[in-house]
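Q: Give me a protein?
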Amino acid sequence: NYNGYGVRCFGSSDGWIKVRPLTGVPPYTYAWSGPDGFSATTDSIYSLREGTYTVVINDSHACSITDETTISSPGKISVILDIGTSLTGGFNINCNGGSDGRVQITPVNTAGSVSYLWSDGGSGPMRNNLKAGNHEVIITDGNGCLADTTLTLTQPDSIKISFSFTLPYCPESLDGQIISEVTGGEPFYSY
């Protein structure tokens, strides 16, 4: 039993079944059938994948019984990411060089308890105060099944201000001007 499943992970072939006749007269013969043409003639079968397995047991008096059992498998393990956005929604970090990124992970198709290992050594499904860049996380469930994902948190360019000057026509005239141009950051600047 792998946390309620018959195999450890999605696609695994590590299930097993053992039968023990409770009535009849030994010796017994066994005839198994299963997925993809599986067959066997022993009381125990191993290295099984998910699916339904049928056994016919005959005793020495030619009495027989047929039974079947299904080996279940967890689904393919994966994650759902909830990645925070900046105040205006254009990036994941509010300011260039900031460390206010946020990620919440929800594991899918896991068995038992789940552990989280982040590329920066962090742990847990919720991370705050992340910087921009790539972040990898590996999740491992109670059966030892793994899933990993890499996410990229974005940030705006740094704010840059440039000035252009128009000198007054005459030193004492009021027709000169200074114009500022702001780039980077996120739009809707306040001055």
About this structure: The CA atoms of residues 182 and 191 lie 10 Å apart. The mean pLDDT is 94.
